[in-house]
Design a protein that fits this description.
The chain is mainly alpha-helical. The protein has 2 domains: 39 residues; 38 residues. The chain is 76% helix and 0% strand. It has 4 helices and no strands. Helix 2 runs antiparallel to helix 3. The mean pLDDT is 89.
């Protein structure tokens, strides 16, 4: 008898999980259609260009550039690698 109840509740839990995933996907799709993008906003292109000019001038350290422009070192190096 206990196995029967466990099976029923396991089936209901699995169904609920599938419904949550379906609603999440539908919500993301609806947001995408409205022009909304998820995730953290990107740093401005102008700020990254300024960072590159400062870096190429060899007058500033990477730490100084990142502090002055309020960007992370990993962001700076990622941009540097892409250029």
């Amino acid at each position: 008898m206990d196995v029967y109840f466990f099976t029923i509740f396991a089936g209901l839990a699995e169904f609920e999980r599938e419904m949550i995933a379906e609603r999440t996907k539908a919500g993301l799709q609806a947001a995408k259609e409205r022009g909304r993008m998820g995730g953290r906003p990107k740093k401005s292109q102008k700020r990254m260009e300024t960072a590159m000019k400062m870096y190429k001038s060899k007058e500033y350290t990477v730490n100084e550039i990142c502090q002055q422009l309020n960007i992370g070192k990993s962001t700076f190096y990622r941009y540097l690698r892409g250029e």
